[in-house]
Amino acid sequence: MTNKGQCMGNIVKIENLQTPELDIYARLSEGQLLHYYEPDTGIFICESPKVIKLALDAGYEPLSILMEEKDITGQAEEIIEQCGDIPVYTGEFELLKNLTGFPLTRGMLCAMRRKELPAAEEVCRNARRIAVLENVMNPTNVGAIFRSAAALNIDAVLLTSGCSNPLYRRAARVSMGTVFQIPWTFFDKKQSWPDQGMEILKKEGFKTAAMALSDHSIRIDDPELAAEEKLALILGTEGDGLAAGTIAECDYTVKIPMAHGVDSLNVAAASAVAFWELGKNKIL
């Protein structure tokens, strides 16, 4: 049954969990959503009112909303108004939990169209401090890195093809919506990493710093790093870290000094420490 809600949107009370319109929330994987309109841009699912609001403010197009019925005139009312007349599928908490397989964070999901990604050169052009993620596969880590990057004055993020997508539901939620605030893109499939990717960074005037332990590593607080006009900090995959070929092509190899015999941090934690050190002059 469909009727016009008092806060705009077409309010649709869920009566059948097998309704095809709900597939994007319940039965399609992140990868399937990514390629939903192929060769055009795909879909992503945004979770929680705060994150959805940031995505809307960044110009992402909403397609439909899934939410608890009790919240229609509550905290989500402004978001529904901002979305216009898209379908707003509603149900009770347990029904929606059975549909999605997880409790809705603050009771709201929104399906949105992806945008065309900018070229790596465009993302680099007006930046001074950027992060490059090499095959960081855990969406929680990707989201945490974006949150730290936005908070600690990193201007942009570039990702290699092996990274988890920043718009995957968990990554966007963990980032607290900062994936919609900081410029980012993937290296184009035709731009091999590290060879052509490094060439792009060099053409855009960046020195490169690999986060890795080696006999040649310098401290993250080395004044030489701070003095670089444009610097790209490169962070590697969980566990194995950066590839040897990537480290070899970088201008610097950088480490975070540690105590008690600890040799490394989780990539998200390491990124926060490094971003603070490299961006603090813009904060202080």
TrEMBL record:
<dbReference type="InterPro" id="IPR001537">
    <property type="entry name" value="SpoU_MeTrfase"/>
</dbReference>
<keyword id="KW-0489">Methyltransferase</keyword>
<dbReference type="InterPro" id="IPR051259">
    <property type="entry name" value="rRNA_Methyltransferase"/>
</dbReference>
<dbReference type="InterPro" id="IPR029028">
    <property type="entry name" value="Alpha/beta_knot_MTases"/>
</dbReference>
<dbReference type="GO" id="GO:0003723">
    <property type="term" value="F:RNA binding"/>
</dbReference>
<dbReference type="GO" id="GO:0006396">
    <property type="term" value="P:RNA processing"/>
</dbReference>
<dbReference type="GO" id="GO:0008173">
    <property type="term" value="F:RNA methyltransferase activity"/>
</dbReference>
<dbReference type="InterPro" id="IPR029026">
    <property type="entry name" value="tRNA_m1G_MTases_N"/>
</dbReference>
<dbReference type="Pfam" id="PF00588">
    <property type="entry name" value="SpoU_methylase"/>
</dbReference>
<dbReference type="GO" id="GO:0032259">
    <property type="term" value="P:methylation"/>
</dbReference>
<feature type="domain" description="tRNA/rRNA methyltransferase SpoU type">
    <location>
        <begin position="130"/>
        <end position="275"/>
    </location>
</feature>
<dbReference type="InterPro" id="IPR029064">
    <property type="entry name" value="Ribosomal_eL30-like_sf"/>
</dbReference>
<protein>
    <submittedName>
        <fullName>rRNA methyltransferase</fullName>
    </submittedName>
</protein>
<keyword id="KW-0808">Transferase</keyword>
